[in-house]
Amino acid sequence: MIILAKTKNKHSMIVFISQIKNKQLFPLAENRPAALFQVAGKTIVEWFYEIGKNHGVEMVILLADKDDRKLLYNALGDYQEVSAPINEIGPFTIIDFDPVKGITKELQDILHKDILTKNSIWLDGNVIFSSVFLDEFLRKAEGTGKIALVENDDEKKECLGLGYFDKKFLDSSTLNAKCVNDIYTEVRNQTKSLTHTLVFEEKKMEFWRINYLWNLLDANQVLINCIEERKEGTIEKGATIIGKISIGAGTRIRAGSYLEGPLSIGKNCDIGPNCYLRKGVSLGNKVRIGNGCELKNTIVFDGTHIAHLSYVGDSIIGIDCNFGAGTITGNLRLDDKAVKAEVDGKVTLTRRRKIGVIMGDNVKTAIDVFFMPGVIVGNNSAIGTGVIVNRNIGSNLFVHITQETSSQKWIVEPKKKKKG
Fold first, then answer.
1. Cys-Cys crosslink for 147: which of 48, 84, 196, 279, Cβ 3.0 to 4.6 Å?
2. What is the CATH number of the domain that holds 153?
């Protein structure tokens, strides 16, 4: 068990919530910013605060446009305090921001006058990390005044969405910035002096930039071990629970269910009877997992029903989806090689051995639907009985099999009674 010392220094944390839409994050990014993707029982922006508060972060500033502002109010409702100003949600403060224009002079003045502490942490909304990583980053930042996490390329030195800056270096460096790399580049140009960097080492650091949706699964496998154990719902006699598990208020675990932690279940969920939730499962609120289902290392957003005899492994499922009986996700190639996925029209190597389906919001499947590894399904689509999904499906489509049938006369002979 790793015990991290809480930092004595206070830091303001500023997050670029609204960003230019990234087609590589289709279909989930069509309906929400990346910072509201769910990982290990929380949205990314909640993880920013939960991890940051152990390192001197008391308030998280969210730079968001009007559309994302509405989504933030809904997602962060549990943090809302009575009689708080409209732009404050517990430890979060939302500030109007246009991702096309970037930080204006007016916004820059607000940040410098009322918000920025001596040292501040700046984040893009499409990154996530563990407390272990942030502890290491801030220890290296101590006394530098300016440091950023950069990609492992000596020529590019592009910031990967995390920077730490002394207020004195930000007087003009934040103007027109649309992401952390803009600030990092401007600080380097204006100070004409060495800016410290921490070079990203993928296999050694618990930091993930969500360039593709399957990066959420990489983060989930680590952060699911950091959940706080709780059992606030109703657990029926005959249910088996082992390992560290978080169960939200109003959730019911029915008899015969077998839950193997670490895993996270949100509020007002209905689990079982006789289902198997394996390590790495992260369920949002109002999720239904029914009889005979098995889930493994899968993220399920709010309101989705996987209610009958289904297997879902290494998958990401959006909000308000409904699986018909016998819906199966294949997550492993027969040749055991890394799964490939088609993203924005290009075949991309995921570098993951196991990936099931990546599914948007409001998708319905009929009975006996089968997904091949790495397929992506858009929002508001439906898939008919018996379809084997081996290619991506776009949004707002009904995919089904055209079946030819024939008939002929059928005579049922009366059964002869046996003698004796």
1. 196
2. 3.90.550.10
Do 86 and 204 reside in the same domain of the chain? yes
Yes or no: say if 190 and 172 are a contact pair by the CB < 8 Å rule.
yes
The yes-or-no verdict on residue 189 having pLDDT over 50 is yes
Q: What is the pLDDT of residues 30-83, one digit of tens each?
A: 999 999 999 999 999 999 999 999 899 988 999 999 999 999 999 998 898 877
Strand pairing class (196-199; 159-166): unpaired
Residue 222: inside a domain? no
Mean pLDDT (whole number) for 172-178? 94
Going through 108-158 in order, the beta strands assigned E by DSSP cover: 119-124, 127-129, 146-150
DSSP states of 189-221 as a string? HHH-S--EEEE--TTT--EEE-SSTTHHHHHHH
Q: Are residues 373 and 278 in the same domain?
A: yes
Residue pair 325/342 in contact (Cβ under 8 Å)? The answer is no
Q: Closest Cα partner for 65 from 25, 107, 37, 23?
A: 107
Rounded mean pLDDT of the chain? Answer: 93
- Express each pLDDT in 214-226 by its tens digit: 999 999 999 999 9
Q: Measured between alpha carbons, how far is 246 from 282 in angstroms, rounded to an integer?
A: 10
Q: Give the type of residue at 56.
A: G
Residues of the chain with pLDDT > 70, as a percent, come to: 97
Polymer length of the chain? 420
Note whether 17 and 64 are within 8 A (CB). yes
CA separation, residue 70 to residues 33, 94, 387 (Å) = 11, 10, 37
242: domain CATH number is: 2.160.10.10
Q: pTM to 2 decimals?
A: 0.93
